[in-house]
Fold this protein.
Amino acid sequence: MNSAEDRITEWFAAARHLDPARFPVAIGDDMAQINLDGGKSVLITTDMLLEGTHFDLKTASLEQVGYKSMAASISDCAAMATRPLAAVVSVGLPAGYASRELKQLHKGIVSAADKYDCPLVGGDITSWQKETALVINVAMLSTPAGCEPLKRSGAKVGDCICVTGTLGGSGFGKHLDFEPRVEEAIRIAATGKVNSMMDISDGLSTDLARICHQSKVGAVLNAEAIPVSEAAMRTSDPLASALNDGEDFELLFTLPEKECEKLLSQWRGTVPITCIGKIVKGEQMKLRAPDGQLTPLKPAGYDHLADKETL
Amino acid sequence: MNSAEDRITEWFAAARHLDPARFPVAIGDDMAQINLDGGKSVLITTDMLLEGTHFDLKTASLEQVGYKSMAASISDCAAMATRPLAAVVSVGLPAGYASRELKQLHKGIVSAADKYDCPLVGGDITSWQKETALVINVAMLSTPAGCEPLKRSGAKVGDCICVTGTLGGSGFGKHLDFEPRVEEAIRIAATGKVNSMMDISDGLSTDLARICHQSKVGAVLNAEAIPVSEAAMRTSDPLASALNDGEDFELLFTLPEKECEKLLSQWRGTVPITCIGKIVKGEQMKLRAPDGQLTPLKPAGYDHLADKETL
């Protein structure tokens, strides 16, 4: 647990006790789960995208920004192996914006909503008086998809660490048109054997550190096994790109070795699953080089609040 | 339906058809309602507060801003006679902010959460790279409180138009420390006779126009009956202040005359209820002066998107 964002999140989680009977999953996971009377539950996530931080309108169209804002939240639903239900979107418009820009944004939002059957059911549109940057917030609901939502905190010593797809270099384009792994997550969770899961939004090294910290375990990754994306291969350090670049929006999950073998042998998906290492004792993360040498692996992904003091 | 905000909302509502069996209330009301399998439903609202538009840190503390951000959404829950369930909050921090500011904001958020039993269950904190304004988004869930959620669209010709509390001059202070009318709304709705309800966030004239437009009815307000707040009395035009100032966060509702008489005679609350006029045929709103003369009443409250072109 190294990033300023994580320290602040921990402070928020500790500041108020939530009844686990009503809120079995709360602050610190990809979504919060809320138990309703009668045995049903819903999950909720909220994500804010800021122009200049999360997107740049010099390189992304408003339609792409709309798609990304929805897809990032849909990926949170996938991260817990839940099914997206509905979304509400708030937009803060720069002074110069008009209905043309709103319609472009809306087009991207509904393209993601339609693709993942997660309708836009409400929103809030407001205008800055003086600021000149666009801000979008998506809040999304999901429901459990036939199993308990998968948390970050359940990884066990001996688990295999797996990822979907390929990692790194998302900034070259994938961060705008990625496909959240909803169906993959539900199929993986249907094995009933997955101990922990999340999506990789801030980079593998940072997000794996979260699973380790919350599960009180360590990890050893095999450098050779990490599925480096084609985009990452074009960088000067493809392995570092795969380990540390943010916004892969792939699944990161752990399950016992035998169950992993079974899953990999039976997996028929267009999106590959790769076992990249093992959960071990302790809270250290290490990287195993092809020659067998172990070096410490530091969380070096994106820290949204890197400039903030420690709480 | 006169404001740019309403025109844009209508465009969004028309752009995608939502199945009313799954979403009985959607875009255009205070909250969207989502039916879950098994007969349960939840409602959701999202509200974005922008520094310089919705609050000014020269005159409001961060704690007050935190309280207001939650209370505005709690008022949306009240507007439909539903009970707040849980909230998630996103914060976009200006570059200079640190944990001290976050904790002040958090203090205000949890004071509202505790008071209205609506816990903060998750959030997202992120930083602007260049902008210098604070942005807060609250998304809130609620559940029906023993009756169907009350919509804006149910007003009937002959209904009395009622409001809680007193109106106008909220900018002198009430807009920062108002008390959402959750218990009042649930008690009023428990009569089973209320045809329409909303909260007054953009000013009585603008919000009543929304009920009239969505219910396809008109309204006549009695100028003498409108409960003008003490703060509004200090302005140069107290009646205009009560009619058009935003952020009263009082309830506006309609019900048949006999039921209104019964409610008023039985009401034992510290918050008064006042009948201020009648629902009539047509979609015109009129104001009746003490001498009986009728003049047209225009929506003249706050329009969040007044500078935007017509869609």
User: Anything to note?
Assistant: Chain B has nine helices and twelve strands.
